[in-house]
Amino acid sequence: MKKFWLSLATLMITFSWASVAFAATGGGSNSGWAAAIGAGIAIALAAFGGAVGQGNATASAVEGIARNPGARGQLFVPLILGLVLIESLVIYAFVIALMLTGKV
What we know:
With about 100 residues, the chain is mainly α. About 85% of the residues lie in helices and about 0% in strands. It has one domain: F1F0 ATP synthase subunit C (F1FO ATP Synthase).
């Protein structure tokens, strides 16, 4: 239960920084650092989540191939498709991070 509350607090802090970054005005204000922090947190969380997702997907596919080597051909295309979709979410986060740093 303690882990849940720690995760929830981290999520709330992350969202509060992101809202500060999006609300920042570009004209001479001193809030450019919030956009940089928000961009860094966004890409870090996306890369971490993508790496965990890709690791789990690959581990499951390898385990399935180890149990049934004949299923290698049937598992290959869905595995690659899943990895591509996971990586696309990381790329979206990277684009958003670039958009945020454009405000700096």
